[in-house]
Structures are given as C-alpha cells and as structure tokens.
Amino acid sequence: MYHLLRSLFFLMPAEKAHYTTMRLFKLISKLPIVQRMFQFDAEPITLDGLTYKNKVGLAAGFDKDGKFLNELNTLNFGFIEVGTVTPKPQGGNPKPRLFRLKKDRALMNRMGFNNEGLKALKARLQTFRKKERDSSMLIGINIGKNKNTPNDNAVDDYVKCYEGLYDLADFFIVNVSSPNTPNLRELQNKGELKKILSVLISIREKQDKWKPLYLKIAPDLTFTQLDEIIELQSEIAFEGLVATNTSIDRSLLKRSNKRIVQELGAGGISGAPVLEVSNSFVRHIRSKSGMTIIGVGGIEDAVSGKSKFDAGANLIEIYSGFVYSGPGLVKELGML
C-alpha cells in the first residue's frame, strides 16, 4: 500500500511531498485502527539514565519545528530528534533544496537549518508535554547556530538554545556537522568543540535535572579527526556521538546520473549510499570507546538496521529510509 502512495507523492517536489504526507497522516492518525497498526512490544533499553521503549529513533531534520509530535508518537518511535533549532527563525537556503536520487535510494538536501526558531519550538514542546504527560517517546533537541552568527560567537547560539529548551528535552544533540551552513563544519575541530561542549556542561551542572548531551558528526571526517573527538570525551564528559550526518562525497552515488547530480548543486547525501561509511564510523568509535553511539545513515530495512547494531550502535535513527520504505519501517526495526 505504501509503495503505491509513495509513487503518487514522488510526483510532487520532495519538500512539498514531505509536508503533504505528514498533514494527511495528521488527519488519519487519530483513528484507532491506525494507532493499533503501529503498535509493537520491544525490550526497553536504558542508556545514560534514560529508558527507551525501543531502539528506533527519527533523525533531526524531519520535524524541525515540532509540528508533528503527536503523529510521530503514534508511529511508536522510541525517540525522536526535533530541530535543528536555532535561536532566531531563519528561512534556510532557496528552494528547491531537497532532491530524491531514486536510483540510489538517496536524498540530497541543502536545507540550511530552516526553522521557526527557539520560541516557536518551545511553545509546541510545552503544549505536547502538557497534553501527553505519559508519552513514552523520548525527545532529543538538536541545536545549532544561525547562519549569520560568526563561528567566533557560535557558542552563544548553542547556549541560547540549550538554556531556553533545557526543561523540555530528554537529551540534547549539538549539531556542528551539517554541510549546508557556511563554515559550520569548522566547529568540528577539537578546540572549537571543547569550547562549546565545556560551556554547555558547565550549565548542566547547575540544573536540577541532568540531561545527556551528544555530538553529531559528519561522515566526511578523517579517522584522525574522529580520534581527536573520541579523545575529547576523556576531557569533557559528554555522553556520546550521533554517527553520522549527511555526506558531501558524490562518489558514494553509484547509480544516479552524474550530470544530473552535478546540476542539482551543493548538498548533503543521505540514504542507502551512506550506510557503509556510517557503519565504518560506528565500528571505529566502538573500537576506541564505550560511549553511547546513536547510529544513523542508510537504514532502510531490517538487514541494514542490524548492520548498524552489529557495528556497535546502541540506538539507531532513520530518515531517508523512512521516506523510501514507509512508516512500517519503525515496527520492522523495532522488532530486531
């Protein structure tokens, strides 16, 4: 059934199809039969003081502004990431900025942290928390910096998001790895990371409730750079890594027309082509550390999901696979 619907939605521009699909699901998700369709039992897992009802999450970028929290809860995700959120609203890069590469079962985006800002997300999270006090879906908040904020002042943006949303999050993810905000990836060097993370952890130490803090990394780092980030955890007690973000490596695309890909322009690749490089990062991190790893990249079925766990991930997240394989993927992975 989903494959038929997908063929219709794929006739629309990708970004329009995304919002159209979720608005339609908002209408039907209230039906009891739909709610029962996505229910399943899984073995809970406790990590960093949090108990997840299952190991399957939704990656950041799918629900940037917390507009579909109820619907994602219906799909029975163990956790989701909302965001990336920035202190001020920003429109992101010009459209079109999201593209399907169907032959590779991939997406390419250059969204540019488009979001309605800290205040709008805060209001929606407050409403959800008040209404769904017993929700078992954990919420991580992915935080970033505004495009016009110089890297020298980036820590200020991360602090604003962290402090402003602290009471509404179950955990936080620091995003310094998107390829679509100019110079953002420069913040992945050890010195800049230490500056940002140490400030956030000092803020956490003053809070009544402790919230885990994770760092999202790019799959385009060298293993030497990755080792520096792993070593940083011995100096600053963040809980783990989200591995990985989208890739700018066009050589990962084996089936798509090279001319068409070139004409699409800049952007990060997600989906099936990123599976192996993401898994290699997960394996490398696990070989060096016992930290929590949230594995993301290329998961579209039980086989690819299992490969991420076999590589050493504690939890997994989906995005492009969710688009190509449909909402039933949550249950398929959750039963692993």
Description of the structure:
With 336 residues, the protein is an alpha/beta fold. The chain has a single domain, classed as Aldolase class I (TIM Barrel, Alpha-Beta Barrel), CATH 3.20.20.70. Helices cover 39% and strands 17% of the residues. It is built from 13 helices and 13 strands. It has helices at residues 2-9, 14-28, 32-37, 69-74, 118-131, 154-165, 190-204, 223-232, 258-264, 275-288, 302-311, 320-325, 328-334; strands at residues 45-47, 50-52, 56-58, 79-85, 98-101, 106-109, 138-143, 171-175, 213-217, 240-243, 268-271, 292-296, 315-318. An eight-stranded parallel beta barrel has the order 3-4-7-8-9-10-12-13, surrounded by four helices. A three-stranded antiparallel beta sheet has the order 5-6-11. It has a two-stranded antiparallel sheet with strand order 1-2.
